[in-house]
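Chain A, query sequence.
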Amino acid sequence: MEDASSPLTPTLNAILIRQFDSPIRMLLKAIDLCPDAVWTASDGHPPIWQHVLHAAYYVEKWMRTPNEPFLPPAFADFAAVDLTAPPEPALDRELLRRYLHDLADRSRHLLQTADEAQLIAEVEMNGGVQTLMDRALGQLRHVMYHVGCISTILCQHTGEPLPWISYTHY
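Chain A, predicted structure.
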């Protein structure tokens, strides 16, 4: 067992970052693997591109400091974010890929630079009171819910689920 003061012991920040990165990487993998015909396939449910947009939008909304204003991206139609828009026209994959990379960088920076007090401080944001840890873990759960939806859609259309990615599997 490692000594808690050992430099090899990961920090809480490092653990949060590596767990938060994996679902984002799974969304990126979905963008890469999704066949064109499936990108907008709805079958009565939101298509893959809307799941990606929805998950990313809420990462942006929750993974910021309380004093940073939430400015929705100009390309995000709220009906698409809310999963109620028609499946077409779909957002461009490269646009969503860049958006996810930007959000991952900003979220990683937020989690890297927070000290323990900032991780557990209850702050008002988006009409509620939560800690940064609550927001990070809540978004991890939210993104993974949509990763599961995407994996189901891919499996139904291609016979292959989205591959699992964890911080130990790159």
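The radius of gyration is 17 Å. Helices lie at 12-33, 36-39, 48-62, 78-81, 93-113, 116-120, 132-158.
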